[in-house]
Automatic annotation (TrEMBL):
It comes from the Bacteria. SUPFAM superfamilies: P-loop containing nucleoside triphosphate hydrolases. Its EC number is 3.6.3.-. The keyword Transmembrane helix does not apply. This is Daunorubicin/doxorubicin resistance ATP-binding protein DrrA. The keyword Hydrolase applies. InterPro entries: AAA+_ATPase, ABC_transporter-like_ATP-bd, ABC_transporter-like_CS, ABC_Transporter_VariousFunc, P-loop_NTPase. Residues 5-230 form the ABC transporter domain. It is an enzyme of class 3 (hydrolase). Keywords: ATP-binding, Hydrolase, Nucleotide-binding, Transport. PROSITE patterns: ABC_TRANSPORTER_1 (PS00211), ABC_TRANSPORTER_2 (PS50893). GO terms for molecular function: ATP binding; ATP hydrolysis activity. It comes from Blautia producta.
Amino acid sequence: MTEALQVKGLTKIFPDFTLDNISFSVPAGSIMGLIGPNGSGKTTTIKLILNLLKKQSGTITVLGFDHIREEQKFKERTGVVFDTHFFVDEWKMADVEKAMGMFYENWDTEIYYKYLEQFQINRNKSVMELSKGMQMKLMLACSFSHKAELLILDEPTSGLDPVSRDELLDILLAYTKDKRHTVLFSTHITPDLNKVADSITFINRGKLLYSGDKEGLTDRYFIVSGNSRELPPDIKDVTQNIKMYPDSFEALVSRERLSDLSGLQIRHASIDDIIVFVSKGEV
């Protein structure tokens, strides 16, 4: 198996939002970042993968299993980390171990306590007494303790301090080092992508804009800038992604349309640039 996760033609229709025909795949042994502005459809995509929401159309294969017909099989091998924990607040670490052990055939108590020690999680504390960073580590410890081959994380570093965020990213890098474990994580924090992601999938307003390696996205777009008096009158025919300042402007332009503009300053767009511009317009 070369793909740990395959999503094809995924569509989900809500009264006020549509996730429209999303397709991407995550190679086994890699880390993919799922990016996009808030409300773009990242969490919806993850919930559909996990069969927490019912799709209108499309196919999802997780670790070679159909995500509906073989849901139990793929979830046995998949770890999930949301931005808030899913434990009872009053549980102590032994309570967590007992509950999780009931759900997973491959649960290993020895590995669980090994990771508690490695992550410096006080086993005598309750879940609600742990910091948010420690709660994230606890969810990871549980995932590792049932020998998950795939980790799916929804905004795992949101709200973490810089030290905790860096520690979490190091854990993900170590997890995939053997090229047998895979990570899909959603984020809006681009330094996280720069540090750990091999590839990215970019969703905006429910539509897929890009899926592939990081360099492929930044190579596709450029920032053009100049004095506001130099703003080409037909620039809106080239791009709708324009930011105006008192005396200057910046615009996000695709490589294909770059030749339509001349006499302006040009630089490669960063992932941050692309997310900011796209959230305010359309590519």
